[in-house]
């Protein structure tokens, strides 16, 4: 979801316009419904074995049954239990995957918390920042050694996709005074704002884009051929049922927002379109909007100092909590 409404999907067809993914392994988090569900479907139909990341096993298995009923072609879908409400659980999920597979070609950090009352986890961190930034950071970093090994294999095309949002161009995410120097910068409540939930959400989505950009920078410095791409999926009807007025919200969203299936197209494009690998200089430092167009990032999203501070402060907070992740400088 975001501000400027658009239903543009162009001529992109995930059934035809993606690479053959036979023999490839992918993970999509938050995938038992919505954008993630359809992303799993299209990757599987191109031959990938896709790990459907979801917290609830029964909901995940129901989603897999529905996918198989719709048809996943030559691919396979497997449940991966992951709970992003605690970085330790995100690490456990990554380690579980590492115990099962010897390669990872595509990682799509799709799961996110939208809004909700301000609360802190037992670790004293803003809960939405944990779900949308700290846990995906830990999950990705724990999987990164395998992603790197896979990227050096012949014929590999490894990509890490981070679902950002146009929300990073709105609200408090635009503040020129924004910083990520210490824990207090992650715990801003914005209680006096008109819509505090959105203020907090916008900053988590900025963090998502900054993380993806800083990861790409560090990969490039080590000449690792992985693409790290942040995207905005478009304004997608995935949250209507979570509003105080779900019936009214769903009517409005049906009129002005994309359905989840076309909402998955930009994720699929970034993850598996041959165009992206053919023109890496165009895409790997970009922020993509529907479908596959290079969008305009906010001034804060372009700040290298903010991206570096986010990375280093996140590492320091995790270290203080005793959460070990593989080093990557």
UniProtKB/TrEMBL annotation:
Keyword flag Oxidoreductase: yes
Keyword Magnesium: no
Keywords: Oxidoreductase
Any one Pfam family match given in the protein's UniProt record, by short name: adh_short
InterPro entries (UniProt xref): NAD(P)-bd_dom_sf, SDR_fam
GO molecular function: oxidoreductase activity
Domain of life per record: Eukaryota
Identification of the protein by name: Uncharacterized protein
Organism: Hebeloma cylindrosporum
């Amino acid at each position: 979801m975001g501000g400027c409404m658009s239903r543009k999907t162009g001529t992109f067809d995930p059934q035809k316009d993606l690479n053959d993914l036979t023999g490839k392994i992918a993970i999509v988090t938050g995938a038992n419904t919505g954008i993630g569900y359809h992303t799993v479907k299209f990757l599987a139909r191109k031959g990938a074995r896709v790990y459907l990341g979801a917290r609830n096993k029964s909901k995940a298995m129901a989603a897999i049954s529905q996918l198989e009923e719709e048809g996943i072609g030559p691919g396979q879908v497997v449940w991966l239990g992951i709970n992003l409400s605690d970085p330790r659980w995100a690490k456990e999920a990554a380690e579980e995957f590492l115990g099962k597979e010897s390669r990872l070609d595509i990682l799509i950090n799709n799961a996110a918390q939208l809004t909700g009352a301000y609360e802190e986890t037992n670790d004293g961190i803003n809960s939405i920042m944990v779900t949308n930034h700290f846990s995906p950071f830990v999950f990705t970093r724990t999987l990164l050694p395998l992603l790197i090994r896979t990227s050096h294999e012949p014929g590999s095309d490894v990509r890490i996709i981070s679902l950002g949002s146009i929300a990073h161009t709105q609200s408090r995410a635009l503040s020129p005074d924004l910083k990520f120097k210490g824990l207090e910068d992650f715990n801003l409540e914005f209680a006096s704002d008109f819509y505090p939930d959105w203020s907090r959400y916008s900053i988590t989505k900025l963090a998502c884009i900054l993380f993806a950009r800083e990861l790409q920078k560090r990969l490039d410095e080590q000449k690792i051929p992985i693409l790290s791409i942040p995207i905005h999926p478009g304004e997608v009807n995935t949250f209507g049922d979570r509003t105080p007025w779900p019936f009214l919200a769903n009517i409005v969203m049906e009129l002005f927002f994309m359905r989840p299936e076309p909402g998955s197209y930009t994720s699929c494009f970034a993850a598996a379109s041959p165009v992206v690998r053919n023109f890496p200089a165009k895409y790997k430092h970009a922020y993509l909007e529907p479908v596959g167009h290079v969008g305009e990032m906010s001034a804060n999203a372009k700040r290298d100092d903010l991206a570096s501070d986010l990375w280093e402060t996140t590492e320091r907070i995790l270290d203080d909590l005793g959460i070990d992740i593989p080093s990557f400088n």
